[in-house]
Each structure stands twice: as C-alpha cells, then as structure tokens.
C-alpha cells in the first residue's frame, strides 16, 4: 500500500496511520463498507458487506447491481469502513468528539468470472461476516453463482484513523461542574430469532451462539 | 424531495421508499453519515457526525477540513446513513442477507457563515447525537466558532432502503437440517467512563444515563 496526496493527513496526524497491520485489523473488525464511486460527475455512496484477503476486499451483489457494474470496469473507488467506539463528552461543546476506528481505502475493482475463484471469494465474505456459517449451509448452485456478481477491490492506498480515550478540555474548563467522560458504544447481538419455518427441534449452532461482532472494541 | 435516475430502484423495489417520513426517521435514528464527494475524478467517502432539520443535514468539522472545503462550494455530494439491524441467516449461502435501514441522499452543501445560524446548527448536531448535552456544557467561544466550519447540506433527492424479517429460502431448502433465522445486531451503550480529571463527586447526568442509541431497532 502506498501513500499519496489522497491519503496524506492534513490535520491531527497523530490520529492517522498508514501501517498495514492497523489497517487490516480495522477492516477485519468491520463487515459493512461504504463504497464511493462516480457516475458522470455525481458521487454515490453505497453500503455493502465485504470480506478481506490480503490487500483485496471482496464485494458481491446481484449481477444486475448498478454499483458493481460501475466498479467492475476499474473505475476509481473509495471504500470506507468505520467502527464507532463511543461518544466523547467534554466540558465544552467545542471539545466533544467520537472514539472510532476508520479506514479509507482507494483502489479499483475487477469482476471475478472464474466460478472457482468466485466461490472462494464468496466464502471469504461469508466467513468475514459470520465465521463458521459457510460450512453449515447449502453451497451455491451454478445458476446462483451466475446471478451473483463478485468483485475484487484491490487496495492501492489506504489510511487508518483512530481516536481513543477521554475528552481533552481547555485547562480552565476542568473546574466546571460538568460531568465529562466517554459513553462507550458497540454493536452487540440480541438473542437469535428462529425462522418461522424452522424444522422442529433445530437449535442455534455454536457459530451463531458464539458470534461476537468483531466490531466490539478490543479490551 | 424529488426522484430521478439517481434514486430510481433498479432491483427489489419493495425494499425501497421515497417517503419523506421514512427517510427522516432513518436519518434521525442514525448519527454517523458517510459523505461522498469527488476531487478531480477521485471519489472520497468520509464518515462524519450530523444533525437533521427538515431536509437539511448539518455537518461540521475543523475549518481546515479538506472535506468541508470541497463541499462548501456546492459540489455534488452523496450522504449515506445506514443502520445495521441483524444478520439474516438462510439455509443456503445464496439467500443470506442483512436487515438494515439505509438512506442515500443527494444534494449540495453551503457553508454557514453567520455566527448565530452557525451556533444553532451546531446545537442541532449536538442534540441529534446526544439530546440534552448542549445545555449542560460550556457554549462555544467566538474563536471556537471561527475554528469550526459548519455546512448545511440540502437534500435534493433521497431514497430509503429497508430490509426486515427472516430469510427467504428456496422451497426445497426448507427441509434441510440447517438452523435459520435472524441474529439481531444493535449499537448499545456501555457504562459511562468518567474522565480521569472529573471533579470529585460528579455523577453522570440523566442525559448520559438515559442515552439510548437512536439506532436501536424500533420495537
């Protein structure tokens, strides 16, 4: 991964990183990407699930997807993955902030046509979103593969931004009688909701019961 | 709000809506927007907090922010707000999905120069993110207002997409011995973490203790 004017840090450089391990860890902790692309000068931002392998992000959707058609020809794209970790509540309005981990990646995508590579990429996405699921379910039929477009987005450049910790107030404001601190936020799971037509006696498997959103802040 | 080729639904139109009430409800349930814009043909996607008032979204940041400088001149922008409600686990890999609420809004932004309007917009953002906070903290100084850029993004067109409910499997797959259903996901708060320099005896106020992420799925 390279760095250029697209990923230079203009402000607060201490929050920024080009370290591949940091970038990969954030991408692996998320499963929802916001993909930006341009059609005749108009920017579009579309949310989509993804999987990561090395510096490749796999995206998938209907073979009729407008986003995938726009991207598959190698148009410039930007992928953002952001995890919210908490609201930073300061003593002054000005110093309020958010704790987060975010990656902005630039690159281009190519469509994967080969059925074997396509299936493998779909497996990467599936395991990225919920590990253990792929082996438990019916694999794609050929006609389902044909109805699915799978793209490999190759990261050319990326940067990470991370904010952690409490508020940083003006020195004179510490005397104010205002509660300040962090309100942690994280994506958590509720109890699994069985499908109405579930076979009698079927219990949620370990990969569902043990699922922990990877976006939970690291201890 | 209008509808055009930018916001037409190409697939699964039953998931889509141009209803302003639906769009506003999703925007109000979120606090993080992904803003897309174009610089010399290159798309950028940047996450940012926002507040809503009517068909205006207020964005703010450092007066030195690259994103805000790009947008303030009225360049075409796309704002996406997406809330994740659950993983939809089907009996086949192909029918896996996600429950979500998402708004894609197109429009342009203008910088707010007037200090009174600027302060009011900052208050809208603050109350959107955590209601009750603004009154509890020190208001912005003039120099802080000057160091902050506030933009009003006017929604020209928007569309909402919502998926709810369980998996929709192929009829012959319902006999498979696979657990299927929904794994609910939501953004939840942890216990407030007091700042290390908090005045002795200061307790978290109601607006912190009672905070519920608006992104929680409606009952």
N- to C-terminal distance of chain A:
28 Å
Order of strands, main sheet of chain A, comes to 2-3-4-7-6-5
CATH superfamily of chain A: Electron Transport, Fmn-binding Protein, Chain A
Tell me roughly what share of residues is in helical segments of chain A.
10-25%
Which CATH C-level class of chain A is it?
Answer: Mainly Beta
Helical/strand content category of chain A: alpha+beta
* Poorly predicted sequence stretches spanning 5 or more consecutive residues of chain A: 215-219
Task: Outline the biggest β-sheet of chain A.
Answer: 6 strands, antiparallel, barrel
| Oligomerization status of the protein chains | homodimer
CATH-derived architecture of chain A: Roll
Spell out the helices and strands of chain A N to C: EHEEEHEEHHHEEEH
Q: What name does CATH use for the topology of chain A?
A: Pnp Oxidase, Chain A
| Largest interface by Cβ-Cβ < 8 Å | A-B, 94 and 93 residues
Strand content of chain A: 35-45%
The counted number of beta strands of chain A is 9
Indicate the mean pLDDT of chain A.
91
Specify the number of helices of chain A.
Answer: 6
- How many domains, in number, for the residues of chain A? 1
> How does the overall form of chain A come out from the CA principal axes?
globular
């Amino acid at each position: 991964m390279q760095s250029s004017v697209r990923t230079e840090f203009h402000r607060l450089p201490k929050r920024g990183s080009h370290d591949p391990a940091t970038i990969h860890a954030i991408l692996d902790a998320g499963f929802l990407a916001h993909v930006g692309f341009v059609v005749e000068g108009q920017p579009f931002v579309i949310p989509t699930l993804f999987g990561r392998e090395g510096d490749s992000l796999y995206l998938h959707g209907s073979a009729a997807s407008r986003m995938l058609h726009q991207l598959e020809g190698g148009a410039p794209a930007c992928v953002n993955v952001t995890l919210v970790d908490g609201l930073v509540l300061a003593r002054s309005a000005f110093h309020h902030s958010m704790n987060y981990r975010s990656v902005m990646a630039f690159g281009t995508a190519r469509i994967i046509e080969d059925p074997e590579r396509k299936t493998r990429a779909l497996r990467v996405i599936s395991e990225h979103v919920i590990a253990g699921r792929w082996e438990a379910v019916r694999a794609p039929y050929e006609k389902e593969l044909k109805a699915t477009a799978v793209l490999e987005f190759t990261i050319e450049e990326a940067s990470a931004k991370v904010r952690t910790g409490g508020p940083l107030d003006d020195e004179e404001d510490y005397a104010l009688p205002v509660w300040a601190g962090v309100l942690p936020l994280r994506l958590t799971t509720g109890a699994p909701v069985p499908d109405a037509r579930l076979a009698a006696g079927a219990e949620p498997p370990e990969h569902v019961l043990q699922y922990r959103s990877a976006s939970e802040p690291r201890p």
